[in-house]
RNA sequence: GGCGCCGUACCCAAGUGGUUAAGGGAGAGGUUUGCAAAACCUCCAUUCACCGGUUCGAAUCCGGUCGGCGCCUCCA
């Protein structure tokens, strides 16, 4: 049996055990993208949160079926196609490709299914038919409206009551301003499909209900998405799904990730003036707010795992401010983990563990204790509402202990058996959090490539200064060596003299 | 107007009834070093926006005040 997991359920507003429909199995549906533009780092947060969840659940023994859709029929896609003089299909296809490139770049697992609205039209039409038959919808001039008043449970997820909503809709033929379109009557120059109510296309919310049922069945275990989807999108999904399935419960566990915010003043430590320009407050990131930072740009600055760490440092339900400075800070944190691992990798010796521990003493014991405890501590944090931040905190405690041990000459020579324990523990970060999955060299190389590009420097330029300094040092021309070091420092390159020769790194 | 979330050190951030309030970054001092860098050590919130209340005991529960954010139009 897989390990039990407790998660916050938006429906009950409490942390509850995940209670699967079938023992050991979880059917998870996550709202994906409307593909009318490139994804920004706010979308990346949602994608990374659910990717981490799925990885972790599988690692803990669950059989997970993970579905994430593409909304490829939508007003904005149609608008963009019209503006570019192309077809909605072409626009959707282009941004689905872009999405896949971004997700691959971020190192995310592919969902088991990625249904598209355009491939689910028959199911959508059938579902709308059942909703009409059940008396929860009405037709007006080729448009089918969901009849909110017919469904007393409406609002259970979001706490909204239809009559209390701000209603600024001009009358479009609805009975109640909270009613929403299941099927939109065809308009000229827009894609449309035949239906019993005339040609048209699906409304915004029905696709997810239909794709969910088509891929996972009438009832699913976990439905995820951004907090901004709670109302109306998910509220409407519940209404549609349950009204078309004879009242059958739709979702057992509703999971919502907090949003990324943008627009805060500088966070650069030490000089956070409170001047007028820094008075901007955090605002949700979004294209309409014109403050979006695209995933592709972020991946040019840092390795994918740094972006991942950025998000996992904060609990998934909290809002998270985005800033370039914080992104670089996350990279520095990631490097700290990689460097601790490297430190462990370099410890030699193959004596029996107890003997080495005995010889080295307290520092060795601490590493062994923390290493052995780490997997369980990570699991405990993750099993209680997916607390990735706490899990990471534990990992950093081990990293510090490894470094402390590595400061001892004797440990570097004989600490191998202790390091093996630490390495095993650190490798636990892969299947659980998706971190430390690169080789040490590959990591340093990627960091150097991306950071040098960001600084406008070339490896050759750096290397030649490093070489010059090395010559100066060999001639004990300390003044010249220090001058060259200073020059590198100015370029944001720090130089480390190691027993194996000088090693340089871009300062993080 | 309605619904909901949040306010923890210089910054980011975990903790949500009970021994010393995780972790990261910045800062100060030290160890180490030709000098450095990295790393390590020490210091850096007797205190969790504010005010009341419940309790033997609260950052954690309840009420109020102030401040911020999200949703109610498309949104991860």
Provide a descriptive summary of the structure in words.
The two termini are 43 Å apart. The chain is an alpha/beta fold. It has 3 domains: 6-260, HUPs (Rossmann fold), CATH 3.40.50.620; 324-433, Up-down Bundle (Four Helix Bundle (Hemerythrin (Met), subunit A)), CATH 1.20.120; 457-506. It is built from 18 helices and 15 strands. α10 packs across α11 (362-383), α11 runs antiparallel to α12 and α11 packs parallel to α14. The structure holds one RNA strand of 76 nucleotides.
What's the arrangement of secondary structure elements?
Layout: E1 6-9, E2 14-17, E3 25-34, H1 41-59, E4 63-71, H2 75-84, H3 88-106, H4 121-133, E5 137-140, E6 143-146, E7 180-185, E8 200-202, H5 206-216, E9 220-226, H6 230-244, E10 251-257, E11 260-262, E12 283-284, H7 295-301, H8 304-312, E13 320-321, H9 324-345, H10 353-360, H11 362-383, H12 388-406, H13 409-414, H14 416-426, H15 429-433, H16 440-455, H17 459-474, H18 478-490, E14 493-498, E15 501-506
Parallel strand pairs: 3-4, 3-9, 9-10, 11-13
Antiparallel strand pairs: 1-2, 5-6, 6-7, 7-8, 11-12, 14-15
The structure holds one RNA strand of 76 nucleotides.
What features would you highlight for this structure?
15 strands, four-stranded parallel beta sheet, four-stranded antiparallel beta sheet, Rossmann fold, Four Helix Bundle (Hemerythrin (Met), subunit A)
How many domains, in number, for the residues? 3
Please tally the helical runs, counting DSSP H or I stretches of 4 or more residues.
18
Report the helical percentage: 40-55%
Rg is: 27 Å
Write the CATH homologous superfamily of the largest domain: HUPs
Question: What is the name of the CATH class of the largest domain?
Answer: Alpha Beta
Low-confidence stretches: 264-279
Mean pLDDT: 92
Which band does the percent of strand residues land in?
A: 15-25%
Q: What is the terminal-to-terminal distance? A: 43 Å
- Overall geometry comes to elongated
Q: What is the CATH topology classification name of the largest domain?
A: Rossmann fold
- Main sheet: which strands, in order across? 4-3-9-10
Name the structural class. alpha/beta
Strand segment tally: 15
Largest sheet: 4 strands, parallel
CATH architecture verdict of the largest domain: 3-Layer(aba) Sandwich
């Amino acid at each position: 049996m897989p390990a039990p997991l407790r998660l916050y359920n938006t429906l009950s507003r409490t942390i509850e055990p995940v209670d699967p429909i079938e023992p050991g199995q979880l059917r998870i549906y996550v709202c994906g993208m409307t593909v009318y533009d490139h994804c920004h780092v706010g979308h990346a947060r949602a994608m990374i949160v659910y990717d981490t969840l799925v990885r972790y659940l599988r690692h803990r023994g669950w059989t997970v079926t993970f579905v994430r859709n593409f909304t490829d029929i939508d007003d904005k896609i149609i608008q963009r196609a019209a503006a570019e003089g192309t077809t909605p299909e072409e626009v959707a296809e282009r941004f689905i490709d872009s999405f896949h490139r971004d997700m691959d770049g971020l190192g995310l697992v592919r969902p088991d299914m990625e249904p598209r609205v355009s491939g689910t039209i028959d199911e959508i039409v059938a579902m709308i038919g059942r909703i009409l038959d059940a008396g929860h919808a009405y037709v007006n001039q080729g448009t089918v409206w969901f009849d909110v008043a017919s469904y007393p449970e409406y609002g259970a997820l979001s706490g909204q009551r239809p009559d209390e909503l701000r209603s600024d809709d001009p009358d479009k033929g609805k009975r109640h301003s909270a009613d929403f379109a299941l099927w939109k009557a065809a308009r000229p120059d827009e894609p449309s499909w035949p239906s019993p109510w005339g040609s048209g296309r699906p409304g915004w919310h029905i696709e997810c209900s239909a794709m969910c049922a088509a891929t996972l069945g009438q009832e699913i275990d976990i439905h995820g998405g951004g907090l901004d989807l709670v109302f109306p999108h998910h509220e409407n999904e519940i209404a549609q799904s349950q009204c078309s399935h004879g009242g059958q419960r739709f979702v057992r566990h509703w999971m919502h990730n907090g949003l990324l915010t943008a627009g805060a003043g500088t966070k650069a430590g030490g000089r956070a003036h409170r001047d007028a320009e820094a008075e901007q407050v955090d605002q949700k990131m979004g294209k309409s707010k014109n403050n979006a930072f695209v995933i592709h740009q972020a991946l040019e600055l840092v390795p994918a795992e740094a972006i991942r760490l950025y998000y996992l440092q904060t609990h998934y339900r909290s809002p998270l401010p985005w800033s370039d400075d914080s992104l670089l800070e996350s990279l520095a944190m990631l490097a700290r983990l990689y460097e601790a691992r490297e430190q462990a990798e370099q410890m030699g010796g193959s004596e029996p563990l107890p003997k080495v521990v005995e010889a080295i003493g307290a520092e060795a014991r601490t590493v062994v204790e923390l290493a052995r405890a780490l997997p369980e501590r990570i699991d405990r944090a993750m099993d209680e509402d997916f607390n990735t931040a706490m899990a990471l905190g534990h990992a950093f405690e081990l990293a510090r202990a490894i470094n402390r041990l590595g400061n001892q000459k004797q440990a570097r020579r004989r600490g191998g058996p202790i390091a093996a324990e630490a390495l095993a523990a650190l490798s636990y970060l892969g299947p659980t959090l998706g971190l430390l999955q690169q080789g040490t060299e590959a990591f340093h190389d990627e960091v150097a490539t991306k950071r040098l590009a960001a600084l406008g420097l070339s490896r050759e330029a750096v290397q030649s200064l490093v070489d010059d300094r090395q010559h100066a040092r060999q001639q004990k021309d300390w003044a010249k060596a220090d001058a060259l070091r200073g020059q590198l420092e100015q370029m944001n390159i720090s130089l480390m003299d190691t027993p194996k020769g000088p090693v340089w790194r871009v300062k993080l």
